[in-house]
Design goal:
Helices cover 34% and strands 22% of the residues. By secondary structure, it is of the alpha/beta class. Strand 4 and strand 5 form a beta hairpin. The protein has a domain of 134 residues: P-loop containing nucleotide triphosphate hydrolases (Rossmann fold, 3-Layer(aba) Sandwich), CATH 3.40.50. Helix 4 packs across helix 6. A 5-stranded parallel beta sheet has the order 6-7-8-3-9, sandwiched between helices. A 4-stranded antiparallel beta sheet has the order 2-1-4-5. The protein starts with a strand and ends with a strand. The chain is built from 8 helices and 9 strands. The chain is globular, with a radius of gyration of 17 Å. Bound molecules: adenosine-5'-triphosphate. Adenosine-5'-triphosphate binds next to helix 1.
């Protein structure tokens, strides 16, 4: 289970954007996180991805409270959580080919290259793998980012508004791919979106914050 307990977080200690929030993501389940713009959904998602340090509260991964955030997050916890962001172009070096994007986590962790297998999993065909990020569509790049997020077989996947830039059919395809990964591995998913209709269809339960 990926658990947030009593999380108060934000960007200025005197003005937290979320206060005393509890949230748990069970293995195999999808929890939707909804709320108006500015309510702190992304902030909570970043805390639960260990990318942002809360002012107070704890995050636990499979029963162990994590001891640090960002570069202080222990590797064994960090690699259990895959993250997919809203704007793939901001999270990818445009000079990299999609193959390099997908291979990066394995390379950085000294593991065998699974780029072909991962590309197949997200339905990116051969010729696209050789193209650079600036030569593919947002949807194709987001598929590569999904493959990158799944490269180390995370037990949890945090998707922060991952479909905002995409059309309905690409959104449905990505959700289908994530469901397939969940069926195969029993991963838990935290899906952040301001699109309540999408979350009702996608998630097993939806948590509303800030309204
Ligand atoms: N890096 C940052 N530095 C300072 N303030 C920030 C930062 N990131 C977000 N904020 C502020 O924190 C508040 C919550 O932002 P957050 O992105 O978590 O909300 P959200 O619910 O995800 O919003 P949206 O649906 O618009 O993405 C907002 O007022 C935002 O302006």
């Amino acid at each position: 289970m990926l658990t947030a307990t009593g999380i108060t977080a934000g960007y200025h200690p005197r003005r937290p954007v979320i206060t005393d929030i509890d949230l748990a993501v069970e293995p195999g389940k999808t929890v939707g996180l909804a709320g108006p713009s500015g309510s702190g959904k992304s902030t909570l998602a970043k805390v639960m991805s260990l990318l942002h340090k809360p002012f107070s509260g704890t995050v636990s991964v499979d029963g162990t409270v994590v001891s640090g955030f960002r570069y202080r997050a222990p590797r064994q916890h960090r690699i259990r959580i895959g993250v997919l962001f809203q704007q793939p172009r901001l999270s990818v070096d445009p000079r990299m080919t999609l193959r390099q994007v997908i291979a990066e986590p394995s390379r950085a962790n000294g593991l065998p290259d699974r780029a072909d297998e991962l590309a197949e999993m997200v339905a990116l065909t051969g010729d696209l793998l050789g193209r650079r990020a600036h030569e593919v569509s947002d949807g194709q790049l987001q598929r590569a980012c999904l493959a990158r997020a799944l490269a180390l077989r995370p037990a949890y996947l945090v998707c922060d508004e991952m479909t905002t830039m995409l059309d309905a059919s690409t959104t449905a395809a990505l959700v289908g791919l994530i469901r397939g990964y969940q069926r195969e591995t029993g991963a838990g998913v935290l899906a952040v979106s301001h699109d309540f209709v999408l979350l009702e269809r996608w998630a097993d339960s939806v948590r509303l914050i800030g309204s």
